[in-house]
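Hello K.,

You asked for the raw outputs rather than the summary table, so here they are, unedited. I folded two proteins back to back in the same session to keep the settings identical. This is the first:
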Amino acid sequence: MAAVVVLLLALLFSGGLYAVFAPTSKAEADETAQSLTIEEGKKLYAVGCASCHGTGGQGTSDGPSLVGVGAASVDFQVGTGRMPAATSQGPQVPKKKNIYSQAEIDQLAAYIASLGAGPAIPTKEQYGPAGADIAEGGELFRTNCAQCHNFTGKGGALTHGKYAPDLEGVSPKHIYEAMQTGPQNMPSFPDTTLSEENKKDIIAYLDAVNSSKSESPGGLELGGLGPVSEGLFGWIFGLGGLIAVAVWVAARTAKAKKS
């Protein structure tokens, strides 16, 4: 009996030690890994970003402050190749091939996030199609986004040489992040304005309209190129038709007077 009691006490003691020390060890390991990620991100930042945004992300005359922009903004701007920006700046920074791997982007995002709280990188559950309402997404998109991006996300021109980009082929994660952070000319749509479900519905709607190979249910869509093509059509044919009618009426009136 004494041997059994000793064995039970030993098991209880070892189990207690594990319960006390194991969670702490795991937390310390996670904290160490996060610290290493931030440190690597800081090195990447010093090489590729500090010249415009300042050594501590405080911003300069060549680039805005990054304190508080969050990891989602970094993942969007760097993941779409908009950052680092080209040396010759235009009215707005265009999308281009990115120069960082996803691991490096995650490191940069972790470092910027450490400078101040901001929107986090969304998970697949947040922007994935599961449970999304496409019809609701269409209503939300037409209400909040179509004024710039066109009804099917084909993009369109803005003032002073700026433009709303075409959303076809843009990854769901980057669309979600754009709504979170409001890059460049776009307003931000935090969860207080558009909830996570709203954002998911909009992404599902864009995926549906851009992946559809059927004809437009509304008839001729002028290539879906946005308000510029529609305005040009109205200007040439609409105004041109009015001028032609005015000339015809004037000619008939002049002829009637001569008679």
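The second followed immediately with the same parameters:
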Amino acid sequence: MSTVLVISGSPSRTSKTEKVGEHIAQRLAAAGRTTEHLRVRTLPAEALLSADVTDPAIASAIAEVAEADGIVLATPTYKAAYSGLLKAFLDLLPQFGFAGKAVLPLATGGSVAHVLAIDYALRPVVHSLGARHAVQSFFLLDKHLSLVDEQLTVHDDSAGALTDVIEQFTKALDGIPHSTVLGRSA
């Protein structure tokens, strides 16, 4: 079974975006996938911003990306773009850091006016990192997400579409020849 790394790019400890990432990780784990969740905000800020790839935490995070078969990028939308925190991390990856991987770009935001931020800002970076397959991006409105006692609820207006996107991502993962990804055997 494939390994999926969810990368959350929100700087907030109480982020709905991060909870969406956890939600996706839990759903994929329930379907038999091995999942990890990298919260970029927990990486050492000085090492991240100075691109110190020798820092143990940064090196470990980069290794997690290299070992994953699939990547979920979860970011809040700020000023019509994905988060600078996520950008700082993606800039540390090797030129083809997503080679052979399926990638699900996902964003949250307060207005549908930001929907295209995924396709015009994040998707080109995903492709430049050499993703084998970038599935349909998905945008969740903040008003469709609620947190009660740290538990995420996705409003019915978005829940079905989110399920469809997760299914597309799962199908893309199934298309990866595990024996050839990074020289590992299935």
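Residues 178-186 have pLDDT under 50 and may be disordered.

Happy to rerun anything if the numbers look odd on your end.

Regards,
P.
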